[in-house]
Amino acid sequence: MLQLSSFAREATVITVGGHTLQVGLALQLLERAGQHDWMARLEPGSPAWLQALVDGLCMLSSRDPLTGLFNRRQFEASLDSEIDRVARTGESALLLLLDIDHFKRVNDTYGHAAGDVVIRHIGKALQECVRPMDTVARLGGEEFGAVLPNCPASFGQAVADRVRQAIESTMVTAAPDQQITVTVSVGGAFAPLWVRSSSHLWMERADQQLYRAKAAGRNRICLESQPRSEVSNEEREMLFSAVSAFMPDAMDSSMDPTLDASMDAAP
Amino acid sequence: MSGAHILAITSGKGGVGKTMLSANLATALARRGERVLVIDADLGLANLDVVLNLHPRTTLHDVFTGQAPLDQAVIDAPGGFQVMLAGSGLIEYSRLTPQVREQLALLLDTVRPRYDRVLIDTGAGISDIVLYAVSLADEVLVIATPEPTALADAYATIKVLAMQQGRTSTMLVVNQTQRPGEGRHVATQLQAVIQRFVHLADGASITLQALGEIALDTSVRQSVQKRQLLMLAYPGSDAASDIREIARRLAEATAAAAAAGLQSPP
Fold first, then answer.
1. Do A243 and B95 touch (CB under 8 A)?
2. Which chain B positions have a beta carbon within 8 Å of A196's beta carbon?
3. pLDDT score recorded for residue B96
4. Is B94 near chain A, with CB under 8 Å?
5. What is the dihedral of CA A133, A139, A144, A145, to 10 degrees?
6. Optimal mutation site among A83, A91, A190, A195, interface B, most CBs of chain B within 10 A
7. Which residue(s) pair with B215 in the sheet?
8. Exposed, middle or buried, A189 (CB in 10 Å: 0-12/13-18/19+)?
9. CA dist A191 to A50, A56, A82, Å?
10. What is the pLDDT of residues B194-225, one digit of tens each?
């Protein structure tokens, strides 16, 4: 049986079903990410151990190491699945892009270590301002993103403003004698309802709004106006009854169960 | 009628047979003696070239970038009509820039006098570019299948066209119907939902013109696999005869509109 030392060596191999697997590098990466717990608890090479290894690597490849938020790769995957969901359900979903204003000045004035503290702080503030179901990511540099599923258009501005205010009103302590305040600009766009768009175009639309917010003086929010095709639940149900009414077993009942005189009345 | 009648063929949802209909409807109209041009305006994800098994050397992309004259991009298709193909994967056209806008309008102005009918095969969905392509057309045909998501997407398209472009008339084709009358039933229901929920500021009502249905028919898939037009490979199939009927109704509708002087330029 293989003995795992407290330090996984790069050359570490295990044997599973007669096959030799090189797991040293993977274990080193996971150990550095603070995943020794399961490595010590589980039996090396067992199915549970292998599953934990796969899970651990998935976690590493989807996270940003500095903030612990999702990274761009995972964020784009979330956008894709959200687009699919919006196309099916017609629920409104909002994409927010955040960029720290004049971040270069923070780095130049206080140093990169202080810059890292600011980035971590913003990531945490953003995460705290949204719901647990929302996906928050650091997209690179000083840019962050959030996808908010099932977010009505009337709600978008309020969420974005909550984030902006929370960041503006907080002092970040980078070192005992370093109090830094930063602001963010926010751009947002809703996924087009009932339409299979692409994550690329969605990002681009939100990015255009972010650019507008920057150009208009920073520390502000620009959201793309209301999604333009709204199909309510009521409309959907009435539409779908057309399909179900034509099923063989429903044929004998009324052909057009929803067609009645009240229909022409304005809602 | 002065110049071609321009018909945009669109669908909310992708994969409901939009390009299949464009190519085979063009064939059926050509058989009726019309001079037909199909423009592949599915600029981001074109596949009319695949359906027609054509490998054009010159595409719309070359025309739009000034690398080739328009005539060079007009190709004879197997069904007795002509096509202008987008060329696959021209992602730069998936967004409506002022250049694309201008080029499309110019293209239609140029081809209009030369044909009786121009069919614009648009992309799926309700992107800016689809809405713009549709806005250039005299009439729009929405194709859907009797499946909830396709129906909802078709409805959203009709609604957006009414609200944004003031289109009070939309043609509908229901594809892949499994029973006779299913298409008519779907059209009736769509019309009812529109009447109830879509209200224009000027109080105009929106009419859905049901052009017909296309039966679910294995010969459609077989023709695609053979990379041949349904109308040529299986002219005796149910689907082919449905498409001939749609062509007949379309020609009648156009003639009636022309006679009534209702045809308005875009």
1. no
2. 13-14, 124-125
3. 63
4. yes
5. -40
6. A195
7. B177
8. buried
9. 38, 32, 9
10. 998 887 767 788 999 999 999 999 999 999 88
Contact A142, A100 (CB under 8 A): yes
From the centroid of its chain, how far is CA A215? Answer: 25
- State which H helix or E strand residue A148 sits in: strand A143-148
Residue B151 forms contact with A (CB below 8 Å): yes
d(CA A194, CA A90): 5
Residue of B nearest to A238 (CA): B193
* Contact state of A194 with B124 under an 8 Å Cβ cutoff: no
Of A254, A242, A246, the residue nearest B179 (C-alpha): A246
Q: Is 60 exceeded by the pLDDT of residue A135? A: yes
Residues of B in contact with A242 (CB under 8 A): 146, 151, 185-186, 188-190
Q: Which residues of B touch A92 (CB under 8 A)?
A: none
Best CA proximity match to A144, nearest among A212, A213, A207, A98: A98
Is A135 in a helix, a strand, or coil?
A: strand
What pLDDT does B95 receive? Answer: 61
A-chain CB neighbours of B197 within 8 Å are 232, 234-235, 267
Residues paired with residue A138 on neighbouring β-strands, in sequence order: A144
C-alpha closest to that of B194 among B215, B167, B233, B226: B167
CB-CB contact of B124 with B14 (8 Å): yes
Q: Is B124 on the interface with A (CB under 8 A)?
A: yes
Q: How far is B210 from chain A (nearest CA, A)?
A: 15
Please name the member of A88, A192, A235 whose beta carbon is closest to the beta carbon of B126: A192
Question: What is the predicted pLDDT for the residue at B208?
Answer: 94
């913003």: which residue's tokens? A122
Average pLDDT over residues B4-28: 91
- Dig out the tokens for B104 from the structure: 């499309």
Structure tokens at A34: 């603070």
